[in-house]
Amino acid sequence: MATHEFFVDMTCEGCSGAVTRVLKKIDVKFDIDLPNKKVFIESDKDKDVLLETLKKTGKTVTYIGTK
């Protein structure tokens, strides 16, 4: 299972809460690094599916790569 790293323009707990809500819906393991505005997702799902899911938060999202 790959760990995908994304930049998400989060500025507060509300932003990270939005990320948590959308990711819980697709049943993946994830970790949010709010100070560095990064989200790490452990999943076999395609990166494009994960990217589109994160974009549902309304935040600017950029795929960084796999770890």
Automatic annotation (TrEMBL):
Highest taxon of source: Eukaryota
Signal peptide extent: none
InterPro entries: Copper_transport_ATOX1-like (IPR051881), HMA_dom (IPR006121), HMA_dom_sf (IPR036163)
Every HMA domain range: 1-62
Pfam families named among the record's database cross-references: HMA
CDD domains given in the database record: HMA (cd00371)
Molecular functions per Gene Ontology: copper chaperone activity; metal ion binding
Xref: PROSITE patterns: HMA_2 (PS50846)
Gene3D superfamilies per the UniProt record, alphabetical: 3.30.70.100
Keywords: Chaperone, Copper, Copper transport, Ion transport, Metal-binding, Transport
GO biological process: copper ion transport
Cellular component, GO, one term: cytosol
Subunit annotation: Homodimer. Interacts with ATP7B. Interacts with ATP7A. Interacts (via dimer form) with SLC31A1 (via C-terminal domain); this interaction improves ATOX1 stability and controls intracellular Cu(I) levels.
Annotated function: Binds and deliver cytosolic copper to the copper ATPase proteins. May be important in cellular antioxidant defense.
Family: Belongs to the ATX1 family.
Protein's recorded name: Copper transport protein ATOX1
Source organism: Pygocentrus nattereri (Red-bellied piranha)
